[in-house]
UniProtKB/TrEMBL annotation:
Catalytic machinery residues: 142
Cofactor(s) the record lists: Fe(2+)
Protein name: Peptide deformylase
GO BP, sorted A to Z: translation
Organism from which the protein derives: Salmonirosea aquatica
Enzyme Commission number: 3.5.1.88
Function: Removes the formyl group from the N-terminal Met of newly synthesized proteins. Requires at least a dipeptide for an efficient rate of reaction. N-terminal L-methionine is a prerequisite for activity but the enzyme has broad specificity at other positions.
Length: 191
């Protein structure tokens, strides 16, 4: 079992692993599943405590290229093993999407208003649920991660991005120049 992972281990935009599709898990992967869930839970709770946001996280966001989503809403955890979206409504909804892998960016996109998702729970019992609105949006976002698709790839157009300040600066913000109006390297300007 790997050492415990948390918030600092969430992959950020630009990491090549975020663009890779995940492989399915098997019943023989019990130890790995336990490890993944523990680390996803830690990261989600740390993110939520620090940024007052976060409902779910995909295994790939922590570098586990396995098909698993961990969700925790109102203190209730749900694990989706090998999820598959089996239905997408024609009716769409537009929204601003955000992501733990790009915590300061909002992306305007369209999602299906209703989806049906089939998955296994921790006992390998198969479930199929129909989800609408917020839950449909959330599971589409996480499922996209398992397919190597980021919300930036679903943006409505080139202007569908907005900077979102976080309550506490994310570590990536510490890498930004202190005065964004001035070039960091002398002689280089902003186009």
């Amino acid at each position: 079992m790997e050492p415990t992972k948390g918030l600092a281990d969430i992959l950020l935009l630009g990491d090549e692993r975020l663009y890779q599709a995940c492989s399915p898990l098997g019943r023989e992967d019990t130890e790995l599943i336990t490890e993944i869930i523990s680390n996803l839970h830690n990261a989600l709770m740390e993110f939520r405590e620090k940024y007052q946001a976060g409902r779910a996280i995909a295994a790939s966001q922590m570098g586990y290229m396995k098909s698993l989503i961990y969700m925790n809403i109102a203190g209730k955890s749900t694990v989706f093993i090998n999820p598959v979206v089996t239905y997408k409504s024609e009716e769409m909804m537009e929204l601003w999407d955000d992501c733990m892998s790009l915590p300061n960016l909002l992306v305007r996109l369209s999602r299906h208003r209703t989806i049906r998702i089939r998955y296994y729970d921790l006992e390998w019992v198969e479930h199929e649920q129909e989800l609408r609105d917020d839950m449909a949006e959330l599971l589409q976002h996480e499922y996209d991660h398992l397919e190597g698709i980021l919300c930036t790839m679903r943006a409505l157009d080139a202007k569908a991005f907005q900077w979102k300040p976080t309550p506490v600066p994310h570590p990536v913000e510490q890498m930004l120049p202190q005065n964004p109006g001035e070039p960091e390297v002398p002689g280089l300007g902003v186009d």
